[in-house]
Amino acid sequence: MNQPSKLTINDIAELLGVSRSTVDRYITQGIIPQPDMESEGGHRNYNANGRGKILDLFYSKKHQIPSEKWKVISFFNQKGGVGKTISCVNLAASLAYLDYRVLVVDMDPQGHAGLSLNVDPTGDDHDIYDVLLHGTPILDVAKPAIFSQRGAPMLEIDVVPSTVRLAGAENEMHASIVRHEFLRAVLAPIQHRYDYILVDCPPSLGLLSINTLYASDAVIIPFKPEPMALRGIYHLIQTIDLIKRPAIKLGLNHPLSLAGVLITDYEEINLQKAYIEEVREHFGSKVFKSMIPHRAHAQESRHHQKPLLMMSSEGKPAADAYLGLAHDLLGIQNREIPIKEVSHV
Ligand SMILES: Nc1ncnc2c1ncn2[C@@H]1O[C@H](COP(=O)(O)OP(=O)(O)OP(=O)(O)O)[C@@H](O)[C@H]1O
Ligand SMILES: [Mg+2]
C-alpha cells in the first residue's frame, strides 16, 4: 500500500507555479483535494490518489500557469488629474463584477478613491493613516462598498479609505529606518484574502507613493494624452527602476513590474492621436489595448459616488473600456476571464 506522502504548501505552489494563497484557495474550492490526514507543522499528507490529482492539475494547468502573478497593483503618475483614481476604482469595480475579490487602498490624502466608492470616514472612523502609523489592523478599517442593481448586489469591493490626516504621515515616516516599508508590512498578512489589491497613489513622488511602489507587484501608469505628458513618464520609469533594483537584489519573488500604460480621458482629436502614437512608439505592447474614452459620466459617477458600471447607459463606453482593461490584465496573467453580460442600470 502507498504510504501517505508529505507535501508542503510550498511544494504544491512551486509545482503548479502559483502562490501559496492560490493553493489554499484551490483546496477550499475543491480544485485540489483536501489532505487525507490532519496537516501538521505546515505539511499536507496526501496518499497516491491525492498526489495523482495534484499531478493531473499540473498537466492540465501547464498551459495556463500565469506568467505574471501580480496581486498588488498601484496607479502611479506624479502628474495630477490624469485618471489615477477613476482608473483604480473602476478597474476594481470591473474585477469585482467578474467575481474577483478586490481590496482598494487609498494612499492619497485627498481621499478620492474612498469617496468615489461611497466610503467616507467621519468622526471617530479610522483610516489608512491609523493603519500605517498607529497599528490599527487593516481589516478593522476596510469597509465593504456594495453596489446593487434592482435590489440584488451586483458587486462588492473592500475599501481602506484615506483622509487629510494622511498628509502628515510622510513626516512621521521619515523618522523610521523602514520608512519605505510601512504599506508593504500591513498588506503582507492579508494578501491571501484578495485576488487583487489596488492602490491609488497621490500626485507626488513622496514617501506615500514610494511606500505604495515598495508594496506593489506591478504599476499601471495612467496617461492622459496632453502636452508634456510623455516627459513626465520618463521620470516615472526612472523611479520604478530605482525601486526595482533593490527588490531584485533582495531576491523578492515579484520585483516591481510595469503592468502597462493606460490611455485615459481620450477624445478623437488629432493632437491626442499624435501623443498616443508617441507613447506607443516608446512603450509598444506595454500600452494597454483598452483606452478610456472621455465621457461626461465620469464626473457624474464621482458625484454619485458609484462606479461607471452602475451608471446609466450613457456612461457605458467608459464602463466597457474599464471592463476591457480588466480583461487585458487578466489576459496578461493567463487568468480565467468569466463571461458576463453587463446591463447598465
Ligand atoms: N474618461 C474620462 N472622461 C471624462 N472625465 C474624466 C475621465 N477620466 C478622468 N476624468 C476626470 O478627470 C479628473 C481627474 O481624474 P482623477 O481624479 O481620476 O485623476 P487623478 O490622476 O487621480 O487626479 P489626482 O492627481 O488629483 O489624484 C476628474 O474630475 C475625473 O472625473
Ligand atoms: Mg487621484
How would you describe this structure to a colleague?
The chain has helices at residues 9-16, 20-28, 48-61, 84-97, 112-116, 128-134, 138-141, 169-174, 182-187, 207-215, 229-249, 270-283, 297-303, 316-332, and strands spanning 5-8, 37-40, 43-46, 72-75, 102-106, 143-149, 152-160, 196-200, 218-223, 257-263. It has 2 domains: 5-64, Multidrug-efflux Transporter Regulator, Chain: A, Domain 2; 72-332, Rossmann fold (3-Layer(aba) Sandwich). 41% of the residues lie in helices and 16% in strands. It is built from 14 helices and 10 strands. With 345 residues, the chain is of the alpha/beta class. The termini are far apart. The chain has a 7-stranded mixed β-sheet with strand order 6-7-5-8-4-9-10, with helices on both faces. Strands 1-3-2 form a 3-stranded antiparallel β-sheet. Mean pLDDT is 84; it is low at 63-67. The site of adenosine-5'-triphosphate has 20 residues, from helix 4 and helix 13. Magnesium ion binds at residues 84-85, 108, 112, 200.
Helices and strands, with pairings:
Elements lengths: L4 E4 H8 L3 H9 L8 E4 L2 E4 L1 H14 L10 E4 L8 H14 L4 E5 L5 H5 L11 H7 L3 H4 L1 E7 L2 E9 L8 H6 L7 H6 L8 E5 L6 H9 L2 E6 L5 H21 L7 E7 L6 H14 L13 H7 L12 H17 L13
Parallel strand pairs: 4-8, 4-9, 5-7, 5-8, 9-10
Antiparallel strand pairs: 1-3, 2-3, 6-7
Helix pairs in contact: 1-2, 4-14
The chain binds adenosine-5'-triphosphate and magnesium ion.
